What does this fold into?
Amino acid sequence: MAPKKTKPRVYFAPSFFKFLKELKANNNRAWFQANKDRYEKLVRNPLLDFIGDVGPSLRRISPQIIADNTPSGGSMFRIYRDTRFSKDKTPYKTHAAARFPTTRDKDVHTPGYYLHLQAGEIFSGGGIWRPEAPVLNQIRDSIAAHPSKWKAVMADPKFKKHCVFDGEKLQRPPKGYDPEHELIEFLKYKDFTFYTQFDEKQAGSPRFLEMFVESCAAASPMMRFLSDALNLPW
It folds into this structure.
């Protein structure tokens, strides 16, 4: 007997984004505490369900990908802001987000996927953002030493269709690299990230999990390149 197919579900209904809009307009502890049950029902739990359900599909892209739907310490980012060093003292984030890394070691810069859900700003993404100098140089060294592999990543048809390469760049070539290198413009990057934009209608579609996985699969050549550059399994 064939296994019963599960019906695609909607994770991020209009109520998900409506709550985040309300939180933006009432970003204070008293309001949040009075509405915490609504936050858990409308925002936290749907995102945790998504994380749990998307895990098997992400692990088909790479068995290293971690999708942990435990409420604390897993893939979902906390709603609470760290205001210690910020002029903005509002206590809560007005978006929900999750990261799917390739290792649980918080001391290791590792490629990972990312999902950002905010009213008017929804995107998947990933790569490595603002790595420390030794990690950044490992990536630059790999690009400089294997230009054909990097060019193949950037020319991959699925990557070009679904993803936008992004990151902050130096104005001048980094020290220690040939200014005449054919990929010097890529060697100037301080981040090696990518993103795919969505809208609220797409996020509220029963196909959104499939669309997110599709964007992650399209970015897998870059994720593999970054992992290889850092001698990490992919």
In short: The chain has one domain: 14-79+91-229. The radius of gyration is 19 Å.
